[in-house]
Amino acid sequence: MKNVQLEVADQIATVTIDRPKALNALNTETLSELKECFSELEKQKDVRVVILTGGGNKSFVAGADISEMVNATPAEGRAMSLLAMEAFNKLENMPQVTIAAVNGYALGGGCEIAMSCDIRIVAENAVFGQPECGLGIIPGFGGTQRLARLIGKGRAKELIFTCDRIDAQEAYRMGLANKVVPADQLMRACQEMAGRILSKGSYAVSIAKSMINAGMDMDLNNALKMEADAFGFTFSTHDKEEGMTAFLEKRPANLTDF
Ligand code: HXC
């Protein structure tokens, strides 16, 4: 792949969107590479956490590539949106836990791909925003939907209508960022959180993730029924047996993957 780098070590995959000269802006080629990369990762059983970051030290992702969109037709614009949605839906729903390591600008499509991750750990110099309305378009990589679900309708409307940029601390106050850390500690902070997740039952974590994701699009009663079914199912796993027995025997649990 040309614009996306993938490294795997100790059950953690690090995906780097790497076009630093364009502040990692997402063109069609990069979106296709991301889709391919996420398709590959979702099949890899030895990967349990995926960390997504941007190449260089200034930007996570500065949005969709404006130089590519400037002459696009409505059909081409729609196709670009659908391609990104396919890639971002894969990212959002992969069985692994995904952490966005936001190392600078997360504007437009950058904010949208960060929101498709489960968790956002952000450097102190991170800047979030949805500048699309200032370009005469709307957020088209899921922003009108995921931002409202994440921080609420009122705040999402304010950010999208004003195109205001917000800093890391403001993103944290709004619930857009899970944690703010000094820039030079960003990857370490992501790996440290990944490590804490890796020590838990990976099967349980993966089921919990899919319950949260699926439940957000359901009514509460049906979502609770779905949770009860999945909860019952976890009682058939080795990890449940081992986790509870270890607790009662006052020893560390040796959780596997089922
Ligand atoms: C293409 C981009 C880009 C982008 C930056 N660059 N963002 N190219 N698309 N989104 C390029 C610049 O043209 C420039 O190239 C180089 O990266 C460095 O950027 P500068 O502007 O010189 O850097 P700086 O002055 O530090 O400003 C950083 C910035 C600014 C604040 C992030 O670049 C900026 O406002 N970028 C656009 C942000 C944006 O509007 N994003 C939303 C896009 S719409 P050269 O060749 O001159 O060095 C979107 C829609 C999603 O995301 C849905 C679509 C369907």
TrEMBL record:
Gene responsible for this protein: crt_4
Protein species of origin: Pusillibacter faecalis
CDD domains (alphabetical): crotonase-like (cd06558)
Keywords: Lyase
Classification via InterPro entries: ClpP/crotonase-like_dom_sf (IPR029045), Enoyl-CoA_hyd/isom_CS (IPR018376), Enoyl-CoA_hydra/iso (IPR001753), Enoyl-CoA_hydra_C (IPR014748)
Complex and partners: Homotetramer.
Protein name, entry field: short-chain-enoyl-CoA hydratase
A UniProt-annotated Pfam family: ECH_1
The reaction(s) this protein catalyses: a short-chain (3S)-3-hydroxyacyl-CoA = a short-chain (2E)-enoyl-CoA + H2O
PROSITE patterns: ENOYL_COA_HYDRATASE
GO biological process: one example: fatty acid beta-oxidation
Pathway in which the depicted protein is active: Lipid metabolism; butanoate metabolism
